[in-house]
Specification:
mainly alpha; 0% strand
Length: 503
């Protein structure tokens, strides 16, 4: 079995799915307007994905992650439950119109960015098969050392050296991606796991468990899945069963574990480890308590009853609340975008710069938090925030402008994820950012993440193989461009020959 990695989807299949969903929604009593714009959103998503080049670009990951994780999963699961799609919402028809409008705007942004993206990726030639093994070892060592140091340093203040290192430290996910890619190519597609990749995955997962972070816990397996699917790797029956079990474990136990664990608020690493070990020993009880709390939580009730992880795999309910506030009080203006740009100024230059926490600000506007709570926030999609700051101008002007910059910058840097590891790294980032990152995350990605990625690419290409050569017993790792020793790579499946779904 191979995990699909389409460069395009059949619009016939997309249309059939949209029509079936529309019919089911109407049969269940969904508002015709809501159902029509749901159909339009799904069809526009398929067209936009194809124009983006599918998964041959990191932009394709953004489009699919936004469409599926923000909207499509939610309305589909609502139909599966037999509930009208517009129920439990304050502005259901307007919300779905906003989503359809945002996808139309994204389609234009994708089309424009494709015209101005450079053809040869700027970071494409830095990592090659010849220097990849050393880069894996160096990234692993650097990532482990930095992660341990950051965790032992305890709480970090904005602008501190520890905070800066935490933002720069993406070496463990990179080690997973490079390690998996290297093993698949070296073995000719017969293996996908090596020791360095396993160590990096365990370290990333452990860090996520200790910090009670869903994104952290799932980052390692997600990186592996993205790489093996991009390379056309054939999964064994045992690996397929393992993935099914991992998905069940994640949705059934680890998501409630993460939600419950955040309530502990342990300031020390020792305290967090003790709390994590305690909760891991009673996952069933933790799940029951989280379910009981979810029944009383009015902030996430798109479905009539708690649906566990599915409550988190849609942004319809929080976006609807933000759109409803906008209709009641009016748009707040573009000052969140201005603060997002200002936030790019380093603390060394602006030591007391304000830290934007608009997830918290919007939650207070909606009345979902206590007056003295200035830390908790609610995630919203870029669409919800765009409408809140400027109404339809936010949807058709500000959001697409930011999307054009985002897509152009990272497609120009990363290139084809099937060939270059940087596209794979950005794909893993987009899975979380696209549906719930808001517009500030786009500004941060363009102005900060792009620079960090370019710097990391240079460091990984030139410095990490040196570090890897010092700690690796293998003589096959080489320095970039020296060509002194070259590993032997067996011919494996060519991911560039994979066809789109339905082709």
């Amino acid at each position: 079995m191979r995990i699909p990695f389409p460069v395009r989807v059949s619009l016939l299949y997309v249309t059939c799915f949209a029509v079936v969903l529309f019919v089911v929604q109407i049969a269940e009593g969904t508002s015709p307007v809501f159902a029509i714009f749901s159909l339009l959103f799904v069809m526009l998503s398929g067209v936009t994905f194809n124009i983006a080049g599918g998964f041959s670009t990191s932009t394709g990951f953004y489009v699919s992650s936004y469409a599926i994780l923000a909207v499509i999963l939610g309305i589909t699961w609502k139909a599966v439950l037999g509930e009208p799609g517009n129920s439990n919402l304050s502005q259901p028809e307007l919300t779905m119109k906003v989503y359809a409008g945002s996808m139309a705007a994204m389609l234009v942004a994708v089309a424009v960015s494709r015209k101005i993206t450079v053809k040869k990726p700027l970071l494409g030639s830095l990592i090659t098969d010849a220097n990849m093994q050393g880069a894996v070892a160096g990234s692993l060592l650097t990532g482990v050392v930095l992660t341990v140091y950051i965790m032992l340093a305890g709480q970090r203040t904005a602008g501190s050296a520890v905070a800066i290192l935490a933002q720069l430290n993406g070496f463990l996910p990179l080690a997973i991606i490079l390690g998996t890619l290297y093993e698949i190519r070296r073995s000719g597609g017969t293996r996908s796991v090596n020791l360095a990749g396993m160590i990096a995955m365990v370290a990333v997962t452990a860090q996520g468990v200790i910090s009670f972070s869903k994104a952290g816990m799932f980052a390692g397996p997600l990186c592996w899945i993205i790489v093996v699917s991009s390379q056309g790797y054939r999964l064994s029956r045992a690996q397929v069963m393992g993935l099914i079990f991992a998905v069940y474990l994640a949705g059934h136990y680890m998501v409630p574990f993460s939600q419950f664990g955040r309530n502990y608020g342990e300031p020390t690493i020792a305290g967090r480890i003790d709390a994590a070990v305690d909760l891991l020993g009673r996952l069933g009880e933790v799940r029951e308590q989280v379910q009981a709390q979810a029944q009383d939580d009015e902030r996430s009730k798109y479905f009539n009853t708690s649906q566990g992880i599915m409550d988190r795999l849609q942004m319809i309910f929080p976006d609807d609340g933000l759109i409803d506030i906008t209709e009641q009080r009016g748009a707040i203006g573009i000052f969140p975008l201005i603060m997002g740009v200002e936030n790019l100024v380093p603390h060394a230059i602006w030591p007391d710069k304000p830290i934007p926490r608009f997830g918290n600000y919007y939650a207070h506007e909606m009345g979902g938090l206590a007056d003295d709570d200035d830390t908790t926030g609610i995630s919203f999609s870029p669409t919800g925030e765009a409408y809140h700051i400027a109404g339809w101008i936010g949807i058709f002007v500000w959001a697409p402008l930011l999307w054009i910059m985002l897509f152009t910058v990272f497609d120009s840097l990363c290139g084809d994820p099937r060939v270059h590891p940087w596209g794979l790294l950005m794909a893993s980032f987009y899975v979380h950012m696209a549906p719930e990152g808001m517009l500030q995350s786009i500004i941060h990605a363009v102005g900060f993440t792009s620079i960090v990625m370019a710097g990391s690419a240079v460091v990984t290409a030139y410095l990490m193989p040196v570090i890897g050569a010092l700690i690796s017993s293998s003589r096959r790792s080489t320095l970039l461009r020296t060509g002194l020793v070259r590993g032997t790579f067996r011919q494996g499946p060519n991911p560039l020959t994979q066809q789109g779904v339905g082709q």
